[in-house]
């Protein structure tokens, strides 16, 4: 078993690294060298992934083997490696975290929920069938009609910046930019305006933010961050086709490769540009 795990680590490193062995004997991400660690394997088709740092636990939605197919809500504690499935949300398709209040939000076919400390879900007054969630000051969600809303102190509000737009994913960054995906095409609009900008040269699978709401775009050509001074994307790794990614407090990425949850651990070796 140990040999099989080591071989998998070597394979992941070989496939995902874009720096030579002389420069970084692992994976180069965000101008730092990292070593690969597989946290958990065998999870089918993870849809969204967040980290609750207070308990060092990953929460994720995934595809359950059932007929008809449905999505469930799972968790994995990085410290003790305990894992399980949380019941009570039908067809869980979205998960997000309010880190300030230590609250996990979950979206499903019957609307929006939050988890109590004992991981029991409680329903909130949102009736939409939710497909995607994001949290920054408010809960942002995409429904099954691909419309963008926010849940604001018990009120559901359609995002005026995205009126008339179909949306698959949405994030809000540290500079009040709204990024959204539409059929894997990336767009950007400043909050409070309707002037939508396109980053049309990129085919993007995933948009996410780190703990400081710095925006990351995982595309078919690598991982990028948005440079607000150049109004452009800067590549920080050439790990391609990532579907889900989150970050810990140290800025180390945790992401999904096939059915594996992988963590990059910072390796403080000198970087040779």
Explain what the structure shows.
- With 273 residues, this protein is mainly β.
- The protein contains one helix and 24 strands.
- The strands form five sheets. Strands 15-16-17-18-19-20-21 form a seven-stranded antiparallel beta sheet, with no helix packed on it. Strands 1-2-24-23-22 form a five-stranded antiparallel beta sheet.
- A hairpin with a 5-residue loop joins strand 5 and strand 6.
- The chain is globular and about 50 Å long.
- About 4% of the residues have low confidence.
Amino- and carboxy-terminal Cα gap: 37 Å
Low-confidence sequence ranges? 13-22
What is the number of beta strands? 24
**Outline:** globular
Structural class: mainly beta
Protein name: Ommochrome-binding protein
Keywords: Signal
List its salient traits.
single chain; 273 residues; mainly beta; 7-stranded antiparallel β-sheet
Please give a quick description of this structure.
The chain is mostly beta strands and 273 residues long. The protein has one helix spanning 2-16, and strands spanning 27-29, 32-41, 46-52, 57-64, 70-77, 83-86, 94-98, 103-108, 111-115, 121-123, 130-136, 138-143, 148-152, 155-158, 169-172, 177-182, 185-190, 196-209, 215-219, 222-227, 232-237, 245-247, 253-257, 260-266.
């Amino acid at each position: 078993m140990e040999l099989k795990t080591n071989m998998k680590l070597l394979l992941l490193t070989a496939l995902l690294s874009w720096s030579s062995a002389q420069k970084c004997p692992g994976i180069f991400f965000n101008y730092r060298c990292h070593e690969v660690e597989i946290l958990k394997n065998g999870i089918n088709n993870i849809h969204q992934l967040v980290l609750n740092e207070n308990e060092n636990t990953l929460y994720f939605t995934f595809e359950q083997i059932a007929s008809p197919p449905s999505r469930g809500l799972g968790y994995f504690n990085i410290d003790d490696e305990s894992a399980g499935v949380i019941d009570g949300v039908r067809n869980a398709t979205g998960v997000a975290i309010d880190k300030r209040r230590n609250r996990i939000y979950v979206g499903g076919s019957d609307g929006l929920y939050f988890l109590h400390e004992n991981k029991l879900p409680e329903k909130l007054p949102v009736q939409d069938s939710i497909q995607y969630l994001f949290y920054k000051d408010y809960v942002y969600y995409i429904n099954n009609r691909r419309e963008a809303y926010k849940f604001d102190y018990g009120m559901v509000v359609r995002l005026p910046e995205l009126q008339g737009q179909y949306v698959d994913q949405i994030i809000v960054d540290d500079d009040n930019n709204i990024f959204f995906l539409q059929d894997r095409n990336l767009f950007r609009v400043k909050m409070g305006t309707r002037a939508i900008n396109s980053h049309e040269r990129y085919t993007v699978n995933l948009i996410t933010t780190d703990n400081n709401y710095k925006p990351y775009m995982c595309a078919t050509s690598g991982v990028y961050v948005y440079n607000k001074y150049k109004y452009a994307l800067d590549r920080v790794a050439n790990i391609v086709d990532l579907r889900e990614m989150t970050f810990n407090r140290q800025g180390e990425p945790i992401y999904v490769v096939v059915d594996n949850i992988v963590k990059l651990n910072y390796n403080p070796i000198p970087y040779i540009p």
